[in-house]
Write the structure tokens for this entry.
Amino acid sequence: LRAMMKQRNVSSLEELISLARELGVGMIACEMSREVMGIRDSGVVAGLESGGVASFLADALKSRTSLFI
């Protein structure tokens, strides 16, 4: 993924996350996806909230825009 992003001149994941934080974007790492992919806490970007579908839906109800990726 990183190679594809670089090849297509797309900002790095770290740069995109930093920009999102500057803009006040709230982000939740999906617990189920992390478990399925074997991603440990140490593999998650620092300060990123972790939650399940219920957490996402609760926040999405209060938001003007929601993305589920």
About this structure: The chain has a mean pLDDT of 86.
